[in-house]
Structures are given as C-alpha cells and as structure tokens.
Amino acid sequence: MAVEPLLALDKLAVAYGGIQAVKGIDLHVDPAELVCLIGANGAGKTTTLKGICGLQPVRSGRVRYAGEDVTGRPAFELVRKGLAMVPEGRGVFGALTIQENLAMGAYTRKDSAIASDIERVYALFPRLKERRRQTAGTLSGGEQQMLAMGRALMSRPKMLLLDEPSMGLAPLMVQKVFETVLAVSREGVTILLIEQNAKLALEVAHRGYVMESGEVTLEGDAKALLSDPAVRAAYLGETAV
Length: 241
Known about the structure:
Blueprint (H helix, E strand, L loop, with lengths): L6 E10 L2 E11 L4 E5 L6 H9 L4 E8 L2 E2 L5 H6 L2 E4 L11 H8 L8 H11 L1 H5 L10 H13 L5 E5 L7 H16 L3 E6 L2 H7 L2 E6 L2 E7 H5 L2 H7 L6
Parallel strand pairs: 3-8, 3-9, 6-7, 7-8
Antiparallel strand pairs: 1-2, 1-4, 4-5, 9-10
Helix pairs in contact: 3-6
C-alpha cells in the first residue's frame, strides 16, 4: 500500500513580478523522509520554499501538506499545522537573547513542555546553553544557524524546511549543523533540505531533486544522484566521463 506524502507539490509555479522563478515543478516528501533539493544560485530553490510557506504568491499549481490543500496559506497557519521553516540567512531576533529566541519558537504552543523542549535544544546545541543570556545579534554565523534550527524545533514540527543551512559557515560548523540535521531526521521529523553543497546534501538525504532554471531536471535515490556523472560534473566540480 502506497504511503501518502506528507508534502506534495503538483505543477507548482511561483513568480516574482514578471519573472517565473519556479516553472511548474512536481516534488514529494514522504513521512520521516529526508529529501534534498540541490541546484546552482538562482535555480529557484528558495522561491520553491517561499511558495510552499505562503511567503511568495503561487501563480499556479498546488501545495498539499498532511493530506490538505494548503496552497497560499500564510506561514503562521502552517506552523500551527506542524510545518516550520529555517530561512536562508537565519532570521534570528538579534535584540533578544538565545533563551528568548527559543521561547518565540514556541509561540503557537500552550502546553507545559516548553521548558523541557528548550533543554532538549540545549542538548543538541550545548554552545547555545553556554550563551543562553547572550543576545542573538552578537553570535557567530554558525551559532545563529544553530539558534534558527533550535527555534524551529521549538514548534514541535512534523516537517522542517531548511534553506541553505551551511551557507557562510566554517567547515567544522557545517559538520555540526549536518550532524544535527541527521539527528533530527532520525527522531522522525520529515525534512526538505535546500542546499548548495550538493555532496553533503546527497550524502545525508534519502532522495534528491536537481533544479535548474526553475525546473526539476533530475530526481531519484540520493546515492544514485551522488554517483551520476552529470551531477558530479555540474555540482561536485568533477569532469564527466
């Protein structure tokens, strides 16, 4: 019996003004799956996420999440349904402390487990606990990325959308961020990962999609894509044989 995807895009098209950045793509992510979407700058990856989250108007097509048509729904409604996004550039509240940023991530919740979930985030990112009273604007890029991921986890998402989590980070911090992505995935959280570092993304993902000029040009098992000569030539800097 086929599993219904947690997220499914059907002919999704998203435009900025007169420029069609996403040209009618199909994509799906099954429950507990880690799927990556890779491509060069300007391929339409971030615009795809913004279309999913209601941050950019959808021109045509459909977004289905948890069996429901959520096309064009505002982001705050989707967070309440368990769909959270970690944006490119992190988007932390610079004037608030780490602890306050994490509390903001739980703004849709009314349960009594918020404090224990903050401790869970600190267990994932011990560096944040050490600096919990420090304002977010004074953190390094890597620490801000940890905080942005932790804040998203505070909403107890069923699904995380991660937009370029490795961008601008030092290699050791990139490794830590990707270790955390894997740890969250192993806990059963479904993840759609947008990433320019194609090698890292395909190494951690179950499946992958390749996007070029607003269209999906390849899809399949992540390990198969990692060994595909065209992918290696285009995104891993290797010469196609």
